[in-house]
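Lecture notes, unit on protein representations.

Consider one protein chain, 105 amino acids long.
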Amino acid sequence: MALEITSANFEETVLKSDKPVLVDFWAEWCGPCRMVGPIVDELHNDYDGKAVVGKVNVDDQQEIAAQYGIRNIPTILFFKNGEMVDKNVGVAPKADLAKKIDALI
């Protein structure tokens, strides 16, 4: 299961990470998010120790979503050294997301 990222742990987990970070912005009511969720969980397991993979519930963490201008979900942001370096909006195959993580490792 991917990490739950909140405003309380966002800075430590995402911005201060020494590993690449994938952050999935999602919501319970979002159908496409339910398709991406299991993929993100698999990536969390696949990249354990190599990258941080987490999820932000946009309903619970509206300030983080607003900070990054999240207007459509699912949106996946990729961070490296505290900077957002890539973005994926909508449903994407696992291989595409893995390729983006691999490029950051």
